[in-house]
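I hope you will forgive my troubling you with a question about protein structure. I should value your view on which stretches of the chain appear to form regular backbone elements. Here, with my thanks, is the record as I have it:
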Amino acid sequence: MRTSTAARTGQYAALLAYLVFLAFPFLWLISIAFKPPRELASLHPTWIPKNPTLDNFRQAFDEQPLLHAGLNSLLAAFGAAVIAVLIATPMAYVMARRRGRLAKAATGWVVVGQAFPFVLLIIPLFLVLKNLGLINSVPGLVMVYVVWSLPFALWMLAGYVRAVPRELEEAAAVDGAGRLRTLVSVTAPLLAPGIVATALFAFITAWNEFFFALVLLKTPEKQTLPVILTHFIGAEGVADLGPLAAAAFLATLPSLVVFALIQRRITGGMLAGAVKS
């Protein structure tokens, strides 16, 4: 009994330490965002600002086009999430249900696709987008994000498809439904939590992505939020800490809000009551 209690206490302590480890950067970012310059320069920093101010937020909006950059990030992230899910859903269905060389090759491509670093991909992607006239454009960036997130999206959705009982599809086939009708009317509704989780992954990946946006977007009116944040750092590497923290705090809010809104669908039972035993 004592061993069980000690083990459970250790688990809770480890979980608490992990939560503190994850929350510390974000909480410190919030603290900096509301501190006046005098407190930022203090040799004895405090967690809670003594004289909280919104001047850092005002200065951040005055110095950089945060709203326009946020709109660019939203368009790129939302477009990449929607397109990736539309492409990955039927492909994942085929990968999960078909057993053959094509399915094995697709699975291998998923694994290999996750192993390529950004640096090896940026030159061929840049040349392709240049030939298509999509350099320095949000649609071109969306195309890159779709290609980058598609392998992992396929891997996620294929696992959800395998969890759907084949009996449901066989029953639909007996009623005369074809493969496409079965996917749309039977399988896809049961994949809703998986589709939402995959779309969330693609959205957050695109929203937070920096390297591709830095290379492909040249003019300030096309740049996304992660790129605009670098403008708060001077040529000598000296950061305008208060406005930078305020802008970074605002840039993290959409991801947190999206996750908070749909986390119940992600953790909910995917097939609860679908098949009676």
Summary: Confidence is low (pLDDT under 50) at residues 268-277. The two ends are 37 Å apart (CA to CA).
